[in-house]
Design goal:
By secondary structure, the protein is mainly alpha-helical. It has two domains: about 160 residues, no CATH class; about 110 residues. Helices cover about 85% and strands about 0% of the residues. The chain is built from ten helices and no strands. Helix 3 packs across helix 4, helix 5 packs antiparallel against helix 10 and helix 6 crosses helix 7. The radius of gyration is 27 Å and the shape is elongated.
Length: about 300
C-alpha cells in the first residue's frame, strides 16, 4: 500500500514539473533568440535553458494570489537583487541583465525540480518508498528554494569584482600621482591613463564610463562620485573624496595626499593577495583530504581483509 501511495505521489509531482518543463520549452523555443545573442555562456552555464525561465516568468501564474506580506518581502528582496546586478553590470545594462538573471534563476529551479521528480519516480518504482517521497519533496522545495541559491551566487561575483578593483587600483593611483605631480590636471591625467591603458579590466571600464559622462556634460565631481558608487570599494571612495575636495577648494595639497593614499592602497593590495592565497589554500585542502582518505583506504584494506580471513 505504501509503495502504491509513494508511486502515485511521485508520479503526480513528476507529471507537474516535467510537464511544466516541456510546456516552457515548446512555448519559449525561438522566442527569445534576440536576447540570447548577448548572453555569455561562461557567466550563465545554463544559457540554453534561460528562455524557459523567461517564458515562465511572463505567465505570472501566482500574481495576485500571493499574500500582501509575501509580496512586500519579495519586492524588497527583488530590489536587493537589482542593486547587486546594478553593481555587476552598471546602470546602462542593469535592466537587461536583471531580465536575464530572473529567467536564469527560474530555469535553474525548473531543471532541478524536474530532475529530482524523475529520480523520485525511479526510486518509487524500485520499491524505495522513503527515498521516492524524499526526492519528490525535494523537487517541490527546489522550485521555491533554488532561485534564492542562484541569487546568493551574485555575492560571490560582487566580492570577486571588488577584489579585482582592489588589486588594480594601487597601480592607477601611482600613475595618476606621477602625472598630476608633473603638472597635469586630474581630468587630463585620468583621460591619459585610460587612453594608454591596454588592459581589459573592470576598473578602467568604469573610469572610461565616467570620462564619457564628463564629456557628455555631467559635472566632473558628480561623475567621479558616481564612479565611486559603482565601484563600491572603500579605497576608491576615499580617493574620490580627495579629488572632489580638490576640485571644490583647489590648492596644491592633492599630490602628497594621493601619494599617501597610494601607499595605503599598496598595503591593501598585499592584504587582498594574502587573503586570496589563504582561500586558495583552503580550497586545496579539500582534495588533499580526499586523496589522504583514499591512501588510507588503499593501505588499510589488505590488513583488514587479512584479519577478517584469519577470523
Amino acid at each position: 500500500m505504501a509503495a502504491v501511495i509513494s508511486m502515485g505521489v511521485s508520479g503526480a509531482v513528476c507529471a507537474v514539473f516535467v510537464g511544466l518543463f516541456l510546456l516552457c520549452y515548446l512555448k519559449s523555443k525561438g522566442r527569445y533568440d534576440e536576447y540570447m545573442e548577448y548572453v555569455d555562456k561562461e557567466e550563465y552555464g545554463l544559457k540554453d535553458f534561460i528562455p524557459l525561465g523567461l517564458w515562465l516568468r511572463e505567465i505570472r501564474v501566482l500574481e495576485g494570489k500571493t499574500p500582501m506580506m509575501m509580496r512586500t518581502f519579495l519586492a524588497r528582496y527583488g530590489n536587493g537583487v537589482y542593486q547587486k546586478v546594478l553593481e555587476l553590470h552598471g546602470p546602462k545594462n542593469v535592466e537587461f541583465y536583471c531580465y536575464i538573471h530572473n529567467g536564469y534563476r527560474l530555469a535553474t529551479a525548473l531543471i532541478c525540480s524536474a530532475g529530482a521528480s524523475i529520480i523520485g519516480v525511479i526510486m518509487s518504482a524500485q520499491g524505495d518508498v522513503s527515498n521516492g517521497l524524499l526526492f519528490s519533496g525535494l523537487a517541490a522545495a527546489a522550485f521555491s528554494g533554488v532561485p534564492f541559491l542562484v541569487d546568493s551566487g551574485l555575492n560571490e561575483q560582487i566580492e570577486k569584482r571588488r577584489r579585482s578593483i582592489q588589486m588594480e587600483f594601487p597601480e592607477f593611483i601611482n600613475k595618476l600621482t606621477l602625472l598630476v605631480n608633473a603638472g597635469m590636471t586630474i581630468s587630463k591625467a585620468w583621460e591619459k591613463i585610460i587612453n594608454e591603458n591596454k588592459k581589459d579590466h573592470i576598473l578602467y571600464d568604469e573610469m572610461r564610463y565616467a570620462l564619457m559622462e564628463i564629456k557628455a556634460g555631467k559635472p566632473e565631481g558628480v561623475a567621479y562620485e558616481e564612479f565611486a558608487r559603482r565601484c563600491r570599494v572603500k579605497e576608491v571612495t576615499k580617493f574620490v573624496s580627495v579629488i572632489v575636495m580638490n576640485l571644490k577648494r583647489g590648492g596644491s595639497e592633492v599630490v602628497p595626499v594621493l601619494r599617501e593614499q597610494g601607499n595605503e592602497c599598496w598595503e591593501m593590495r598585499k592584504n587582498a593577495a594574502r587573503q586570496m592565497g589563504e582561500e586558495a589554500g583552503t580550497k586545496i585542502l579539500i582534495p588533499m583530504m580526499i586523496m589522504f582518505l583514499g591512501i588510507v583506504l588503499v593501505v588499510s584494506t589488505p590488513a583488514v581483509l587479512s584479519m577478517t580471513a584469519g577470523m
